[in-house]
Amino acid sequence: MAHRIFTVATRGPGLTEMTRDVSRWVAEQGPDEALLTLHIQHTSASLLIQENADPEVQTDLQAFFHRLVPPTTDPTMAYLTHTYEGPDDMPGHIKAALLPTSLQIPVMAGRMALGTWQGIYLVEHRDRPHDRRVVALLR
Question: So what's the pLDDT on residue 132?
C-alpha cells in the first residue's frame, strides 16, 4: 500500500492532464496488481477520465459545462444565493457535484489499465488558476 498527494497547478477553467505524473508514480511503487484511488480535496474542481488524443474533446466539454452551468452573472442563474465568492464559485460547486471527485483505476502488470486514448484530468471550474491537491492511494 502506498499514498501520495499530487499538487496540480491549473490555469483557470479547463482540463489539466495528470496521467503522466500518476503513471510514473504507480510504476515507481512496483505493484503487479492493485487498485488506484484518486480523490480531489476541493469542492469546485473535479476528476475525469477522458480522451487525450484530440484536444477538441476538452474544448467541447468545457463549452458544454459552461453552457449547462453559466456564471451567476447570467440572468438564468439569478436564483443562486451563494455569490459572495464571485460569479464562478457556486457554478463551480454545481459542476463538481455533477462530475466525479474520486476515481478508481485498476493496475495490472504494473500499469494503470486505461484505454488507448484515455487520460486522467483535473477539471478546474473556477476562473482563476489554483493549486489543487489530489490524494492517491494504491492498494
Answer: 98
pLDDT in tens, 105-125: 999 999 999 999 999 999 999
Q: How far apart are CA 54 and CA 5, in angstroms?
A: 28
Task: Tell me the C-alpha to C-alpha distance, in Å, between residue 45 and each of 87, 99, 119.
Answer: 15, 9, 17
Prediction pTM value: 0.96
Q: What is the largest CA-CA distance in the chain?
A: 53
Three-class SS of residue 47? strand
Neighbours of 18 (CB within 10 A): 19
**DSSP secondary structure letters along 92-137:** HHHHHHHS-SEEEEEEETTEE---TTEEEEEEE-SSS--EEEEEEE
